[in-house]
Design goal:
With 69 residues, the protein is α+β, with helices and mostly antiparallel strands. The chain has helices spanning 38-41, 48-57, 59-64, and strands spanning 5-6, 15-17, 27-29, 36-37. The radius of gyration is 12 Å and the shape is globular.
C-alpha cells in the first residue's frame, strides 16, 4: 500500500498529502485521517490550536493568507 503522506520536516506535526497529477491541490492533516484543503479550509475549519501549529510550521502560508486572519 502506498503512503501518500509526508512531512516537510521530521519534527513537524502537520502531514501533507502527495497528490500527483493534481495541480494546486494542497491537502494537509494533523492525524492522516481528517483532511483539510488549504485554500478552502484555512483558517476557518481549523481549531485555534490547529491554526497555531499550522502557522508555526508554515510561516509562508500564514503570510500568504494574512487577509484571512
Amino acid at each position: 500500500m502506498r503512503n501518500d503522506w509526508y512531512k516537510h520536516n521530521p519534527k513537524d506535526t502537520i502531514w501533507w498529502k502527495d497528490t500527483p497529477g493534481q495541480i494546486g491541490l494542497w491537502i494537509f492533516s494533523f492525524d492522516q485521517k481528517k483532511e483539510y484543503y488549504m485554500f478552502r479550509d484555512y483558517p476557518s475549519a481549523l481549531t485555534d490550536e490547529e491554526k497555531a501549529i499550522f502557522d508555526r510550521e508554515n510561516p509562508y502560508w500564514k503570510k500568504f493568507f494574512a487577509d484571512r486572519q
